[in-house]
Amino acid sequence: MKNVLDCLKRANARIAQGDLQLREELQLRRDLSLEGFAHESMADAVDLELPGSEPAEDEFALETIVLRTGRPVLAVHEGDAVLDLDESDSRIWRKRLEDSMDNVRRVTAAVGRVELTNHPQFEWAGTAWLIGEEIVVTNRHVAELFGRAANGAFVFRMGLGGTPMEARIDFLEEFGRPEAQEFALEKILHIEPGNGPDVAFLRVRRKGQKELAAHIPLFDEQVASGQDVAVVGYPAKDTRIPDIQLMTSIFGEVFDKKRLAPGKVTGVNQINILHDCSTLGGNSGSVVFDLATGKAVALHYAGRFLDANFSVPAKVIADRLKRITSGETVIVRPAPVVTPSPDPSTPHTQPAPGIAASASQQTLVQRVDLHFTLPVEVAIQVGQPITGGAARTVSSAIPTPAEDVDEQVPEAPVESYRGRPGFDPEF
Predict the structure, then answer these.
(1) For the ranges 77-91, 304-318, 387-401, 406-420, which has the lowest average pLDDT?
(2) What global pTM score does this model have?
(3) How many Å apart are CA 201 and CA 386, to the nearest integer?
(4) CA–CA distance, 284 with 200 (Å, rounded to integer)
(5) What is the SS3 assignment for 142-203?
(6) Do 189 and 366 contact (CB within 8 A), yes or no?
(7) Helix axes 244-251, 55-70, angle to 10 degrees
């Protein structure tokens, strides 16, 4: 418990340091909780004629309460994203979310769960959201579960019974609601290669006269550390978390359903936007949006529990979307990439897939012809554009990753977590 407790303390200290308003509330929550623990310990000692509860247990419970206040995880209800704000003990976050409620409703309506048919293992794969008219964006590592490049295009993989898999997006999947709001994902427009940012785009097929929600606009200003954001996605029970009780204390007993988690931007560079919203596996592909404007700041793709979360910047996503829909041809000759060795104390760390590059530093494909030479040269040809536009050619090199980009644990699709052994307690 000690290592997890230390991580909790560090996480709470970072939250308090970066938010003066919240710092006062967290200290008040801490003081009130300490009083409560003291009374409970005295009562236990009298009733059982035993000393009070173990100090370490009280301290762990205290830090968990503080974290749940500082970085709550809220339910989304009734399709129009009415939030159950009673879940949060934080008056500060309640006020911030209420002030941004119109933006919150618009964003949550455009976020859905990627569900699969004919997959041999998985019923659903992660989160996606509307980024354009009839186009959703998710992570590469989500789309690769059911899609791949073949013969100059992207196709659905073969599934059970020798028939192709199918994918759809459900914009509900809310707790306590049996209804669905599903649309087929009829075409894979783009899956970024492994040396590019963790993004993929798919086309949604409208269902009769049923309208899709408005797409989420992309944030086109400079993102700043300390900016108020929130993540909307589908967190799932994650056996890699070092303490399952801690996970359920933060997320409740509800998993696989639409949730909103507020937080702040904690770091910005050309290839990543870091944030500290509470996420789990299943949040792969979640939108990270600016509370003040309702615009998407980034696409969440990886995280380290109680430490850091990583996301692809909106500018990179915007560049990809523009180039896909205009039919560009991109030729990339990457420079050698030096990646840090995985930290042996952090199992499941896979730094290479998490190294996403900026819009001018990466590879774009729609129709793919790959040619490999050694050391490494990749020529990628794009075929017919999705919509009109003249084809152009771009050549660029991928530099060594920035030093301040640490190792990340990609938030793999939810089902892949089930049955895994838990995190090393020495994490």
Answers:
(1) 387-401
(2) 0.76
(3) 12
(4) 12
(5) HHCCCEEEECCEEEECECHHHCECEEEEECCCCCCCCCCCEEEEEEEEEECCCCCCCCEEEE
(6) yes
(7) 40
